[in-house]
């Protein structure tokens, strides 16, 4: 119908047709411009899959990429973060204090000859100057044993990290479901790759 009217206008006055054409061209141009918007929306949706990770700093120490896994078992779960000692001398993470767990522990993961992974408690995690030390699935991690309450995705766990230097660093770690967990864990382990599946992270830590 619109075309019919345009033709009628063209028959009536050529100048008018030229104006209408110019008009419809500019409309097309603006349509093209708006069709690029959904791409932006799509990448926003992707970002939603990975919820915002915690970061915090205290003089000389920076925490980034902090999160806690939705407990795979009722009584325990693990927390992960990257620490950077921005000072000039070595420091050590010696303890974590939190009110959500009766026993917060520092663990490392050892792979036995059979290939089975085993978690071992450690007393401290060294932080050499100017290096990132990543606590991550399949490696060193914070173990929250004897959970005092249920932890659901979207909640936050407040932790206070204590260091050999006497420094203390507080952070609020978001609780993430497996499909919200960060995908690209640097040097990711078998467990991290398993997390790429729909229902990874089925095991205990
Ligand atoms: Cu553990």
* Second rung of CATH, namely the architecture of the largest domain: Sandwich
Basic shape: globular
Q: Give the topology string: H per helix, E per strand.
A: HHHEEEEEEEEEEEH
Strand segment tally: 11
The name of the CATH topology of the largest domain is Immunoglobulin-like
CATH class categorisation of the largest domain: Mainly Beta
- Mean pLDDT equals 77
- Which segments are poorly predicted (pLDDT under 50) over 5 or more consecutive residues? 6-48, 186-204
- Fraction in beta strands: 35-45%
Structural class: alpha+beta
Count of domains: 2
Could you walk me through the main structural features you see in this protein, from its secondary elements to its overall organization?
It is a single chain. This protein has 205 residues and is of the alpha+beta class. It folds into 2 domains: 2-35, no CATH class; 52-194, Immunoglobulin-like. 25% of the residues lie in helices and 39% in strands. The chain is built from 4 helices and 11 strands, in the order H-H-H-E-E-E-E-E-E-E-E-E-E-E-H. It has helices at residues 2-12, 14-35, 37-49, 190-194; strands at residues 54-58, 61-69, 76-85, 91-98, 101-111, 117-122, 125-127, 132-135, 141-147, 156-163, 168-176. Strands 1, 2, 3, 4, 5, 6, 7, 8, 9, 10 and 11 form an 11-stranded mixed β-sheet that branches. Helix 1 packs antiparallel against helix 2 (14-35). The longest helix has 22 residues, at 14-35. The protein is globular. The termini are far apart. The structure holds copper (II) ion. Copper (II) ion is lined by residues 78, 107, 119, 141, 143, 205. Copper (II) ion binds next to strand 9.
